[in-house]
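notes to self, project folder thing:

trying the whole complex as one job this time. last attempt i did each chain seperately and stitching them together was a nightmare. four parts in total, labels are on each line so i dont mix them up again. if this works i'll redo the older ones the same way
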Amino acid sequence: MLVVMREDVSEDQVAAVVARLERDQLSVHRSDGGARVVLGVNGTREIDPRTIEMLEGVHEVLQVREPYRLASRSFRAADTVITLASGPAEGLRLGGDEVVVVAGPCSAESRDQVARTAAACHRGGAKLYRGGAFKPRSSPYSFQGLGEEGLAMLRDAAREEGMALVTEVMDAAQIELIERYADILQVGARNMQNFTLLKELGRTRTPVLLKRGISATIEEWLLSAEYILAGGNEQVILCERGIRTFESATRNTLDISAIPVVKQMSHLPVFVDPSHGTGRRDKVAAMARAAVAAGADGLLIEVHHDPDHALSDGPQSLHPAQFEQLMAELRIIAPAIGRSICVETERRSGWGR
Amino acid sequence: MLVVMREDVSEDQVAAVVARLERDQLSVHRSDGGARVVLGVNGTREIDPRTIEMLEGVHEVLQVREPYRLASRSFRAADTVITLASGPAEGLRLGGDEVVVVAGPCSAESRDQVARTAAACHRGGAKLYRGGAFKPRSSPYSFQGLGEEGLAMLRDAAREEGMALVTEVMDAAQIELIERYADILQVGARNMQNFTLLKELGRTRTPVLLKRGISATIEEWLLSAEYILAGGNEQVILCERGIRTFESATRNTLDISAIPVVKQMSHLPVFVDPSHGTGRRDKVAAMARAAVAAGADGLLIEVHHDPDHALSDGPQSLHPAQFEQLMAELRIIAPAIGRSICVETERRSGWGR
Amino acid sequence: MLVVMREDVSEDQVAAVVARLERDQLSVHRSDGGARVVLGVNGTREIDPRTIEMLEGVHEVLQVREPYRLASRSFRAADTVITLASGPAEGLRLGGDEVVVVAGPCSAESRDQVARTAAACHRGGAKLYRGGAFKPRSSPYSFQGLGEEGLAMLRDAAREEGMALVTEVMDAAQIELIERYADILQVGARNMQNFTLLKELGRTRTPVLLKRGISATIEEWLLSAEYILAGGNEQVILCERGIRTFESATRNTLDISAIPVVKQMSHLPVFVDPSHGTGRRDKVAAMARAAVAAGADGLLIEVHHDPDHALSDGPQSLHPAQFEQLMAELRIIAPAIGRSICVETERRSGWGR
Amino acid sequence: MLVVMREDVSEDQVAAVVARLERDQLSVHRSDGGARVVLGVNGTREIDPRTIEMLEGVHEVLQVREPYRLASRSFRAADTVITLASGPAEGLRLGGDEVVVVAGPCSAESRDQVARTAAACHRGGAKLYRGGAFKPRSSPYSFQGLGEEGLAMLRDAAREEGMALVTEVMDAAQIELIERYADILQVGARNMQNFTLLKELGRTRTPVLLKRGISATIEEWLLSAEYILAGGNEQVILCERGIRTFESATRNTLDISAIPVVKQMSHLPVFVDPSHGTGRRDKVAAMARAAVAAGADGLLIEVHHDPDHALSDGPQSLHPAQFEQLMAELRIIAPAIGRSICVETERRSGWGR
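result (full assembly):
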């Protein structure tokens, strides 16, 4: 922290500020060389900068960025690559050279829907399967998911196709249950600052896909990742899914520029969810291509074997043929940035049977 | 829902849209009188408007507002007045003629701090005491609260002064514990869409003060209230505390206009928290006055008997003398809108002993 | 400007940064006392901070605020009070103890409408009359104003009632014309960064009312005021009129907190326009009261003698009776902050005849 | 416009609303089939929807989108392709199969800088040259451009390399001057709603590149285009350059999703400016790739032969080698969406000599 004093500051005022800082066991280094007196502040104690800003004679308090530590590039210079340690996609690397695609329906609706959609996703080249069993919905009158029954459907379908399963956990009390079915735990945008949940996820050793809150700054997002990392769970994947802006022509504004920004600030893998980011099927492919072109490590794409009959988010789900077409386009784009997208589509059916 | 067709729509396209709607058991009423065919849609089933918007020949789908029901003025025309049914402030009416002030520290820090601050708040005219024992913090490295020990301190101090206690619940699993100490349960801005928590709060019969999420629209806020109301708990108080905008000169932008807007859309009481809304002590009084002038039913004000030594949010806490000054100003303003602010300050000490 | 180096910075990197700064004739003061090397930078040359931020070994560049000078409280500690030097309201003080109200229609429509509305405004207690003759409209198909004919109508009606006239100038080429009719020149929100216009206004000696752009930060707003001040015109009034946020329940979000913030950063008077800020008549009074309670120096209120027949912005215009009711409420509120609102309503008719 | 009545509306209230609409020569078609009475409103007169919304018994007024006409896809289904009619790039098609790149410095600084940068841009594959001679700057103390002398430099350098020139016009009074030098007139973000300027540009027959305002909705942007089109100038190119959001890690948030959205709503070509959108050289390439992948018709890229010595915006200008590298990446991406990027780099030097 740097405390910049007013040009007309008195010696008494400087002394009072120094005393206030030292009261909190902070060490202060005074610099008189410039046009204004500047106090450099160091120490392990945290102090609210506004406390100092309101003292007499203080012009401004400037903070050196990076309140997060474990999530920062300063802490770890090399990219974190998360390797799945078990399950049908054992050995799959997230954050490596390959751009990894997670696909699947918004919600598990029935055994048939889940199985048919899984087959379509796998055929298109997805390595992970996504789908919700517990759904956070803005309205209490909307479909809330099938619960554990849905989890079992999703897991069975994913394993049948040899894909790992990513699914959302909405509450700390659900972690244990969901871990029995899923390979990656997803934290939804509305829960990005559910600190009780984040702390518990820090205690597991299952990878966590942490969506960015709809109005979270990148710094807040990394601080939420820090909650998980600080608990000892180093396997965090960040996922951009659109921010809230004044523009209403799209549901959210997918912040593509967050990709290069986060890659510079942090070593964690960054995925993008263009389905929630745009909210409309006819915009998903354009934004998925943009995300890969901008350097995303992976994508989350909503696919449904029959979107017109989906119980939730059908309008933003791709038809299987659209998904295959998109994957073909992505395979052209990835090499422009030295990446690849897997084309292997042989069925690893019967995994775990 | 109203479906507006394109000017060049064909009869086949209209028929296909009608068929799609009827497949979902919705009744359709066609109107050909205007420049465009318009389909009025009725029924109890919910349908995602985007599903229809993407059909051939559709120009636009317009939704009639108010996805919430129990929270709306249409459902209940008269203002909801919540009367505290027990505790030290038994009989106090929230949402009535009197503007009610909740005051207290950000966090419980020590028995002494909690008691001295409570006395100052009561002296100024506060009827309810606020303070946190479980704190949601953006950084895992910040002070996280004293937990149950803090709850006991807060309750004891509030009762000593004859004030009811408002405190935050961060997780559904905490409700039972916190209800043993508090008279009103507060849901913080970051948890406004923690649906697991909201559902559980619908099952209690303790009043809930629901803060607006930092980027929540008023509609989403009312939908979150609807979660609680739909569970059978009719005692919901809304609390505006600032929204996130591009402006960085204030921590948040306190949305004063939300007060008249919500009063028109809903029958629920609306409180305002100018301390979190501005983040700085020297802006709190101006915004508190503005809130009362705009019609707020109550205020949440952070007060600390010694803000300079507060463990959290000291910079936005008022000194006791500032709080008394503010209350005096508010007593001038309230009559301009036909309201009053209590001046009774006799100590109801020893309540419940 | 302060340049904070990385913790692992090398001496060569520090030397390169110093050399780069000195190349631009900036003086550099190095401080080694803290955990990081910090360079204090001084000089009259401007340098883009990003230039330095991208050099090797630099962690961050921190800027001391206040790129504006003449508009700042540091430059002038006392409040600027603008006294009208001529015209029907000669001697009226803007920014002094009295809260001044500017009222009138959105646009001049006819001689009768302008005269009847002026009489109603004056009766309610307005000291200045407002109304547009050149209207900036988002759509080319909307009513664009009556031009010079409208200006004459507005001036005549204002003088008849003894009020000064405030009207909008949309382009530098219009200044000369409009100055012949108006006592205060208004710059609309969309033109807040029309620098050609601002520079020309710096050359006049007519007071300027500068509306805040819909997405302008307070700093940008003060920089636009600086353009006018730097040209030698010291009579600038700032006017908050709502900012663009994600919330769509109101047309804009009136930023009431901007009032205390600007009063702290600048010595210029701050007015508030609750009519454009809310866009709806039934919200105007609440926000006008809030603005005065928060410390605004003046208000701009749209009034129309017959809003239901207005050619533009009828829905946000008050009926004369509503305006009188509002003024009565404001007279109760103003004393809470040591201000007054004039009650003198005698007609100064025939001014200048 | 559709007027939805309240469920408990009375016949008298319906009659009053109908009368109000008919007073404005609007025709009303009443529909009683659904749960609520709905009035379909038609006619050429414009009416402010808020006028009706405030009448008794009205639940809500819903507007059919598209206040713009000439800019909409409904008006013209096929993509507009603008073919340069004269100048060094005569015959170049904007909005066709080829993705066109406009490159150049922020500002003209000297004859040498302009010439060397032009050579580098042409070598990389740019077909148009960009650069400013009149600069809109937030601060009155920043470099304001070289004026006409700069225009001559830019034109000469562009012609020497066989490139067309794009430059900014800040005020209606400058159009005539700038048209003598430039092939395309650029309207900056801050002037997107300078209606005086837009109207004058409607009278020219020079193509206009219209940047999106920093907080303009897509609808407002298209309405500004409508101003130009309505004047008879059909050659409008839209250019996305970043919107203002709460995120401060980037200067603006480049709204990549605006590309597919605008392509659906309008027939006009859409360009993207990743240099202003991100504000930092190290983010430009990622966003340029994303824009092309999402379907942009063209790019504006800031390039400087020596960015470290640029007088303005050096930090967001690419080095010539970076520009060439980016162009190579874009040539890989374009085919993924059926587009191409020209590789022809032979020098058409001496054009017009």
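what i see at first glance: The first strand of chain B starts at residue 2 and ends at 5.
need to look closer tmrw
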